[in-house]
């Protein structure tokens, strides 16, 4: 089978992509609006970019009316955000926080998700997140305009919170204690299975 993206509508292309790029990590992004409302939303078009400078990236698309999502607007206005990583036990709250609430309603308050103050940015973090990366905006790249238009938001990590309970004996995060969530296509998620270690070729 062959696919020519130019012959596919956006919805179908999206469906091919989210069922192919698997599993995806999830950035649970907290921001604060100019009006002081704390916002929280998940983004699975997300990854680490580089360690020098320490940079993360997530991708908010416009809504179907062509408007930027609250997260995107808040980041543009305040140039700050926090990328929280979630544990498997937090999946219900993470999913709930994807609700399309008006900008004046905080997902933290609506869904009873405890926040904690950040150190270097105004936006709060998710108190129970195993790891939270406080970020300042590096740049936003817009790939198109209008409904579903894609953007990549790059942030420089300026502070990191780590829950000591997820650390292993070697002092690094223990993946089984962190128990991360993977996003699949549709409404599907995956939990870590068996782990294999392989020596890298010289
Ligand atoms: C697990 C998960 C991953 C998501 N990933 C993305 C994404 O990468 N990009 C995006 O634009 N929306 C994504 N969404 C949808 C947003 O979370 C949703 O539009 C949310 O309402 C945006 O909130 P905001 O307007 O408060 O920023 C995802 C939803 C879920 C449940």
List keywords for this structure.
202 residues; alpha+beta; Pnp Oxidase, Chain A; seven-stranded antiparallel sheet; two-stranded antiparallel sheet; 5 helices; 31% strand; globular; binds flavin mononucleotide
Reading off the top of the CATH hierarchy, the class is best stated as Mainly Beta
Number of domains: 1
H-E order:
HEEEEHEHHEEEEHEE
CATH homology superfamily name: Electron Transport, Fmn-binding Protein, Chain A
Low-confidence parts lasting 5 or more residues at pLDDT below 50?
Answer: none
Termini gap: 37 Å
Strand tally, please?
11
Class computed from helices, strands and strand pairing: alpha+beta
Strand ordering within the main sheet: 2-1-5-8-9-4-3
Work out the strand percent.
25-35%
How does the major sheet shape up?
7 strands, antiparallel
Bound ligands, each once: flavin mononucleotide
Rg of Cα set: 17 Å
Shape descriptor: globular
Number of helices: 5
Report what the structure shows:
There is one protein chain. The protein is of the alpha+beta class and 202 residues long. It has one domain (23-168): Pnp Oxidase, Chain A (Roll). The protein is 16% helix and 31% strand. The protein has 5 helices and 11 strands; from the N terminus they run αββββαβααββββαββ. The chain has helices at residues 10-18, 70-78, 91-96, 107-110, 175-178; strands spanning 27-32, 38-43, 46-51, 54-58, 80-85, 115-116, 125-126, 131-142, 151-162, 181-183, 189-191. The chain has a 7-stranded antiparallel sheet, with helices on one face. It has a two-stranded antiparallel ribbon with strand order 6-7. The protein has a two-stranded antiparallel sheet with strand order 10-11. A hairpin with a 2-residue loop joins strand 3 and strand 4. The longest helix is centred in the N-terminal third of the chain and has 9 residues, at 10-18. The model has no long low-confidence stretch (mean pLDDT 98). The structure holds flavin mononucleotide.
